[in-house]
Design goal:
heterodimer, A: mainly alpha, globular, B: alpha+beta, two-stranded parallel sheet, 32% helix
């Protein structure tokens, strides 16, 4: 048990969550972070999908890492990721159809999410399945933290709702408050993300990122 | 073992591909009935939305649809009935948006309230927006002229601009308008640039900043409804 949560493994997990965060520090996976965060629900589903896929593909690649021919390793990684993504997208269609419509192409685009290839190539190819799993979960949650914060701000100020439920009371509107339409556009997500990254760097300014 | 050997590489790649292919085929086959059912419910929801029946929970969609929609007939461009549509979603409903052609035009005959006036006709619409396809349904009253309700959706219009064609405020503007003016042989129902409405009988106010998407909606209404001209008996007016 102590070995399962050894210092290295804990580092693999918590580093990804904090100062080696895929979005804030590595600046990977920005495209989808801008596209699916106009509301909280798709942001959460997307985070969940990415977390599952990073963790699973990390484990699979880590298990077969010694058998993969070096020359085609990127192709094998892609095939594994593509298969998992396709399975997730079929599952979503069957279980949560409206979410899958909302996420539309972005589920398929998880294949090209740089976080996946980055983690597979940088971590899973060199580490055992358990630490790869932790690394995957850590990175997925790190990605989720940013996606959900951006989604929260955008949905709250863009449409006055959270999870589609009105949060800002009508009386505030009658005092002249208006929803910020800019928030529903991807450009604003980039600005919010920029602010979050700046905050993250400020909090971690003593560490070498 | 030498993993860089050519034979090993080829065998390895083939094995991976075969395993993945089987896995995907299996998952897709197992979940197919459920995803098809979801697609069917989604389509029914859209048709109901055009009849101003919105926010029906997914579990009630089938029964509500069954209650309101009587026939899913198919007509052709000459106004001839190809299929009566009395076999429970096997005719017009079974046609996907892509399969709609001048030879096969679905019409949903609905009864929203008792009596002749409660009879509504729903026509599918498909067209091009600014970035991708747009589609929808338009319900006409039993006079086959006045709009009873509309539903529009889109694939990838700009959020906050073109994507607002999905909003109720935009769709409700169409209610009560006519699809063609008295004596006109053409489909006159259009969306005009925001704030330029002159003829309130056939013109709807567009969305500011989304002129191209709104033009797409106009073209879609014109092109799709034109196919039904013979059925709508335009020449007899």
């Amino acid at each position: 048990m102590s070995k399962m949560f050894s210092k290295d493994n804990r580092e693999a997990f918590f580093n990804a969550l904090n100062f080696n965060n895929p979005i804030a520090a590595q600046v990977l996976g920005i495209c989808s972070a801008l596209a699916v965060t106009s509301q909280l629900k798709p942001a959460i589903v997307m985070s969940f999908c990415v977390t599952c896929i990073v963790a699973l593909s990390n484990v699979i690649i880590s298990l077969i890492r010694k058998t993969i021919p070096n020359r085609i390793r990127i192709i094998i990684q892609l095939v594994v990721v593509a298969a998992l993504v396709t399975i997730v997208s079929i599952l979503l269609k069957a279980v949560a159809y409206d979410v899958s419509v909302q996420l539309s192409v972005y589920v398929g685009l998880i294949i090209t999410n740089c976080i996946l290839m980055g983690r597979l190539e940088a971590f899973a190819m060199m580490n055992g399945p358990w630490s790869s799993f932790l690394d995957g979960i850590g990175n997925g949650l790190g990605y989720a933290a940013f996606l959900i914060s951006v989604g929260f701000v955008r949905e709250l100020f863009g449409s006055g709702c959270l999870f589609g439920v009105k949060i800002i009371p009508d009386c505030v509107y009658s005092w002249g408050y208006v929803d910020n339409g800019m928030m529903t556009m991807p450009a604003m997500a980039l600005i919010i993300l920029g602010c979050l990254i700046a905050l993250h760097r400020y909090l971690n300014k003593n560490k070498d990122i | 073992m030498n993993t860089n050997n050519n034979t090993y590489t080829i065998v390895y790649a083939s094995l991976v591909v075969i395993v993945v292919a089987f896995l995907l085929a299996f998952v897709s086959k197992v979940l197919e009935p459920q995803s098809l059912a979801n697609e069917r419910i989604d389509k029914k929801k859209q048709i109901l939305a055009s009849l101003n029946v919105r926010d029906v929970p997914n579990s009630d969609v089938e029964s509500k649809y069954e209650e309101l929609v009587l026939q899913d007939m198919i007509v052709d461009v000459n106004g001839q009935v190809v299929a009566e549509g009395n076999n429970h979603d096997k005719d017009g409903f079974a046609l996907s948006m892509k399969e709609i052609s001048p030879e096969k035009l679905p019409i949903y005959v609905c009864q929203v309230s008792p009596g002749k006036d409660g009879k509504k006709f729903v026509f599918p619409l498909i067209g091009k927006g600014l970035w991708g396809s747009i589609w929808g349904y338009i319900a006409l009253n039993s006079d086959l002229r006045t709009v009873y309700g509309t539903y529009f959706s889109h694939q990838s219009e700009t959020a906050g601009l073109g994507a607002r064609i999905t909003e109720l405020a935009f769709q409700n503007q169409f209610v009560g308008k006519v699809i063609s003016k008295d004596g006109s042989q053409d489909i006159d129902l259009t969306v005009v640039k925001s704030g330029r409405v002159q003829d309130t009988a056939v013109e709807c106010d567009g969305i500011t900043g989304a002129t191209l998407t709104c033009n797409g909606v106009s073209d879609m209404l014109h092109d799709c409804l034109s196919n039904y001209k013979n059925y709508l008996k335009f020449d007899e007016k």
